[in-house]
Design a protein that fits this description.
Blueprint lengths: L2 H12 L10 H14 L7 H11 L9 E7 L11 E6 L6 H7 L34 E4 L2 E4 L16 E2 L6 H8 L8 E6 L5 H9 L14 E7 L11 E12 L4 E12 L6 E13 L14 E9 L13 E3 L1 E2 L9 E3 L16 H23 L24 H16 L3 E2 L9 E2 L4 E3 L2 H12 L13 E2 L10 H6 L3 E2 L2 H10 L2 H4 L2 H13 L1 H5 L8 E6 L5 E5 H5 L6 E5 L5 H10 L6 E3 L2 H8 L4 H11 L3 E3 L1 H9 L6 H16 L5 H10 L2 E2 L5 E2 L4 E3 L6 H6 L9 E3 L8 E3 L2 E3 L1 H11 L2 E2 L20 H16 L6 H9 L3 E5 L2 E5 L9 H10 L7 E2 L1 H4 L7 H6 L6 H14 L5 H14 L5 H7 L5 E3 L2 E3 L5 E2 L27 H7 L2 E2 L5 H6 L12 H14 L3 H7 L5 E3 L2 E3 L26 H4 L7 H7 L5 H15 L5 H16 L6 H9 ...
Parallel strand pairs: 1-7, 12-14, 17-18, 17-19, 22-23, 22-24, 27-28, 27-31, 37-38, 47-48, 51-52, 55-59
Antiparallel strand pairs: 1-2, 2-6, 3-4, 3-6, 4-5, 7-8, 8-9, 9-10, 10-11, 11-14, 12-13, 15-16, 20-21, 25-26, 29-30, 32-33, 32-34, 35-36, 39-40, 41-42, 43-44, 45-46, 49-50, 53-56, 54-55, 56-57, 58-59
Helix pairs in contact: 7-8, 9-13, 13-17, 13-18, 19-20, 19-21, 20-21, 29-31, 38-40, 50-52, 57-60, 57-61, 59-60
Amino acid sequence: MEAREHIEEIRRKKFSIGGEQNPLTEDLHQAVKNLSAELYAKDVHFLMELIQNAEDNTYLEGVDPSLEFVITSEDITATGAPATLLIFNNEKGFLSKNIDSICSVGRSTKKGNRKRGYIGEKGIGFKSVFLVSSQPYIFSNGYQIRFNENPCPHCNLGYIVPEWVEENPTLSDIKKIYGSGTTLPTTTIVLPLKFDKVKPVKQQLSNVHPEVLLFLSKIRRLSVREHNNDPRLNTVSAIAITSETELVVRKNIDAVSYTIHLSADEKGKESEGECRYFMWKQKFPVRQENKVERRMEVEELVITLAFPFEERLHRGMSSPGIYAFLPTEMFTNFPFIIQADFLLASSRETILLDNKWNQGILDCVPSAFINAFVSLVKNSENVPMSSLAPMFRFIPINSSSYQELNVVRESIKSKLLEESILPSESYMEQRFFHQPHEVGRLMPAFWTILEKARKQGVSLFHLSSHGKYILSSSFDRTEYDHILNFLGVELVNKEWYAKCIQSSKLVEGVSEDVYLEILLFIADNWRFKFDSTNIKYIPLIKYVGLYGEVSLCSINESMQLNRDRVVSLSRHSEHISWLIDWNKEFKCPANYFFWPKSTQESIRFFTKRDTVLEWLRDHVKVGAMSVYEYAGHLNKYLNICQKRAIAFVHFLYHSLQKSYLSQWEVGVLCDSMPLVDNYWNLKTHRKGVLVPANGSKWVRLIGSNPWTSEGYVELAEDYLQPGCFAGEYASGERLLEFLKTHVGASDIPYISPPNATIPTVSSPLTKQNAFLLLGWIRNLKCREIYIPEKFLKCIKEGSWLKVTTSGCPGYRPPSQSFMLSSALGNILQNGSVLVDIPLLDIRFYGDGINEYKEELKKIGVMSEYVEACKFIGDRLMSFKYSNLTMSVLNFIRFLRKSFLPLDEFINSIKDKRWLRTCCGDRSPVESVLLDEEWKTASQISNIPFIDKDGEEILSFREELKLLGVIIGFSDHYQLVVDNLKSPSRLTSLTPEAVLLILECMRRLGSSNKLVEALKGVKSFKTNLGYKSPGECFLFDHQWVCILQVFKVFPIIDRGFYGSRIFFYRNELKQAGVKVDFEVAANEFAKRFREQASSMTDENVLSFLSCFRQLKDLDHKFPSDLKKCIREVKWLRTTLGIRKTPSECILSGPDWLSISPITVLPFIRDTDNYYGKGIHEYKKELKSMGVVVEFKDGVEFVVAGLHFPSDYTRITPANVFSLLKCFQILLQDSSYSFPDDFSKRICKKWLKTTEGYQPPDKCLLLDSSWGTYLERTDGPFIDEYFYGSNIKSYKKELKAIGVTVDVEKGCSLIASHLDSHVQFSSIVRIYNYLSQFNWVPDSEVARWIWIPKGSQYGEWVRPEECVLHDRDGLFGTQLKVLDKYYKPNLLNYFSHAFCVRCNPSVDDYCTLWEAWESSGHQLSHADCLKFWVYVSKHWSAKTERTLTDKLLKLPVASSSDEILLFNKNDVFIADDLQLKGLFEQFSPQPVFVWYPQPSVASLPQIQLFDIYRKIGVRTISESVMKEESYSVDVDKLNQVNPKEILITKGLVTLILGFLANPVMKMEAERRHETIRRLLNITFLETVEPITVNYSLLLSSGETVKARANRMIRWDREASKFFSQKLDRSSGYKNLIKYATYFSEAISEGVLWENSEHIGALSELIKLAFMLQFNEEAVRFLMKSKNLQIFLEDEGFLASVFPSD
């Protein structure tokens, strides 16, 4: 039928246009209405529907499917459309059935064909174009039709009625738009756009995502462009997207991987965007629990994951993370794309996350990801390791905004942690992968070191042999930190680095630069990593040894206190060799060593030298050392070896010559170095150094060494010997000069003299030695060197100096010699005939002696007149004869007459005691010539008056005056004071004597001596008799009243002394008399303080009167008196004790209302005490601190609170008065209640609805409480008793502890909760508590009411409760709160009382224990609920709990019930063959229960895993296979194993398995294992082999079973029994044989490594089915990452030479 005829037939038959009425027309009308309602509300969704339709279309072979969108502003349909969209698709074209379908509703040709790859979903498909176009056109395979959304005038139907199109447009019109030079694709859809849809359509076309083709299996090209005659009018962003599949690799029957190359050529961009995607497509079976009606026919899920190798194509848009063949708008935040047949929301924006079909897909995504990722990482052959690391960026590190996808992410993470995916650094061709927790990271700096070390030939093959596999360096980079952190990969522990450095010989094998980098690495990480590790104990620090070799020591050796090795480096590069050479010369004293020269030179140019040096200094004790510092170190070790000490001098000499040491440094070192003395002793301490005695001047002058006792060292003659050390030569002369210069080796006159007597000066000296001695003294003087006392004394006093006395020669000490002119000498001789003067012998010494005048003067020789006078005076004073006084006076008179100076002579004698007085011998200046003026003073002083033996002495008044004798009184007050009589003779003085003393004090100013003399002496007359000054007061009429309060103060008698006494006020004050008011007041205060407790009422009133008087006179009381008045307890109170003023209250009427509830200190004003008269002094009392006003005494109320024992006696007036006090106190913001206030106020004095309560147990009810509680719900203050006025004291009540804020009353309300029994009240209170999130603050408050009716119930602990019991198992075990309380209170109980939401694992265990003890037969439903709960809450803690508590486990019985057996007697059926055996032979069930049929919530494998972890054994590990077996020996036939089974392929496979690094088996052991296999005897039989099994139960009973086996390897007998294989007997028998064979071979080969038997067995079984084909075996090994090595290949060749 032609296309047009077909359309006419549809119009006629289906829509009754020009034909008979269709009976289904009414149904069509309804279907079209439903279609109109179902069309998507989103304007532009039609575009995805069209792409989806194009993907579902069929294409001819050899055609690259393409889809093109072209929009034009031309109205080629003549419908008045503002723009037209054309869609071109090169599919096969529309067939008649497609036309029939499109003219129907709900008759898609793709329906039910999901398994065939159709991706269309809702059945609307093409009809979605009506969203943007009113009249869509189709041109395909000869069909030229259009549809109209408006009802057809012939049948009144829209959307599905076809109409043939002759023109507008024609195919030529379309071709002009498409391009006249090309052939039109088979199918063209033309959409004249609605006016309001042009902009949305253009926007959607511009936003076509460049990854739209990624998961489409057919379409390979999609393009969007705009066609306008004027290109400037184009507004659509054109794009051409191309998809190419580059590579396909089939992994297995379930998964395929391939690479897709997407390119997007966008208009306006210089180059097209490109991206390669690794695609992983994997099939998963659909689980029953995930099936939905819309996918009921689908049996397999197909999940495709796309991993972009480059930046994803995005056109500036966000990239979707989930595809349902076409992109959704879900941004997953994952670095890969998930594609699957998801069920979508109607908008196509998102998948239905709560849909179980989609959940089933998401559950499979982690497995698909793991398989894809492992394939990417492990199966990339010949790819450098560095290219694998970027693959790890595909791991979903970041969380998603969708919680369901976060579950996927966490599942991926948990699976990754169990996979061997991380490559380790092996430095071999073989790659090794490990689980993340097995791998450790290194710090980046250490990687740099290792790489350089490897290039320098250091072996690093054992890098992963120190407790952790080391992550590949290509991956161990900062850019992958986030990935590695996600996988939990951590840095290796701190001890690893020490092991690595030591085991790899890293320090010895690298260059100096790398060595320094190692030190830098350790230094940078010392504080936080290596400080406490074993790195301290490995050989690390280089040094030059005793014989010049380079050695190593540990940090610990270098830094210990005993310093096993002290390593240093040279501070200056030019000194390196010098220090190393001399260190060898000195034999490395005290284990001091230096870094090698090469190391020291390298560190000079090391970029981080400061860091390394600082670490070496602070933590290794390796410091930089200069020549000076080294010399200082050597200096400490010279005192044990004389030769080393002499060598040290040579070291210093040569170091100075080479300028390695400065003059100053040499000087410092020389000062402290030990010297070898003339006895060959080492001297460390010395005061000076003497040159050797041979040829010295000191020996010539002195003869012996007087400096020895003073610490001087006489150098040994060895210093004069030439020497050669460390290759350097020095002569003895140069060395001695060096010692003189720097050690101070000295000789006369440069040596300092000893503090000792020189024997040679005790007798005459030769002229030469005399001049040598004078020259020595001159040198000392020039150098300003101190001359010791003994030395100078012996020179001064030694009789070695030649003199003449009156012409007679002799020898005298210098101190008794003169160097005077002869004329002066004669004059002095004539005046003092009793004294001879010794003169220096000029004739003996010659004129040269005159050059030494200063030196002679220094040693005592006198040369001046004044010295001669003093000499004469001293000589005269030494004479003791009676007429001395007159001789002296006569000599003075002679000098006056001779007009010679008198001062020196007089000065030499006037201070000496030679003048006789009444007080004994005194000096002239201490003596007085007696006269009338001194008589008064003599009463109080002992004056030294000169004795008058006659009147002759009076003629020498002038000479006496010159000598300093006092003539006349003339204001000599000081002399009076100096000679004052003893205090005991100064009592009861006359007025004249007292006044003289006071005058002396005034004149002299300083009166301490007089004051001390008078102290304590009763010398002043007072009204109370004679008293000492300190006891007296000077009368003052203004304030004398204060002294009259107590009649105990002595006042000076003014009548006795007269008015003159008042002129000496200041002097009296100095003597101690109290003359000032302040002092008197302080004394009064002391007396006041002493007598306060005994003050009479008369004293108090007298004091108050005086207080008023003094205040009126403006006398200010001193602070001490004020303090005393305020602090002393002197006022009587009603409390019966005295109080300070500030502690007292002057009573008044205002205090009456507060008195009943307080005890207050009122001043006693009754007649028998102070009387009412005390109120006259109210003003004075107030100023002293007494409280006289009520408002000022409120603090007394607080302190004196005393509630009566009968609280009912407290009236509201009392309470309000007390609250008024609180109100006054609280107005002072700085006031705070005393510490004990809370204790005193905490009495039951406030009346509440629940009786009298203390304030902190009360609540104040106001309007804010009414929303939550009623008056009877708690202890609210009784407003009926106090009246409404009580609310006005809200602030005061709050201050004393009453709860007034509704949000703060929770604890108090809760404390009274147990007094309620009405459930409605309790619920109301709980609602109130929950409103303010109150949490119980003690165990007492943690109770919950469980009602039993409205009036009864019980209080239980929260631990006995749960909120819900969804499984309904705990009705008798726990209190389930959702039975009694609404959800809002359940939430409150959860967070406030910590009530568990559901029963815990422990609760379930307790329930199970109850089932165990009761013998209760469980129902399958209850058992299933229990184990489903356990599986959902499985953890390490759950495992421990169940292991400890569950003694019995479920087994299925023949009945519907489940029995509980001892868990040691039940087993997991992991071996179905054994399961069948023991079900047949065992009299009781022995296999654990599992649900049948299986349920999704408790998979069998998960339940078995739980059983295993809590102690249930598997049947395979529990059964004992008896070694005895039955074989008919006569029927055995020995065969050659290489001919049938033990082939080269099998041996290759076993060798590859054993060579796996996990096995840790060396080549020799592998080969020995194969030899044992090849050397066994193979015996073949036609009969099966019988094997016996036994299973031991906890009761001791044994269950036995018997089975036939086809294979058995008797390893001890080295025999292999095998039933003859008949390969023609069918697949079952073949796989059975393969299973037994693989198990036997694996058990025999790996009998020492049983944990790997299963893995090898599976490989052998698979290879057996392939008949051990070598190529197949090699491929199988490669897929499992197994290989054999060259040594294995050689072994194979020797075993199978013919192959």
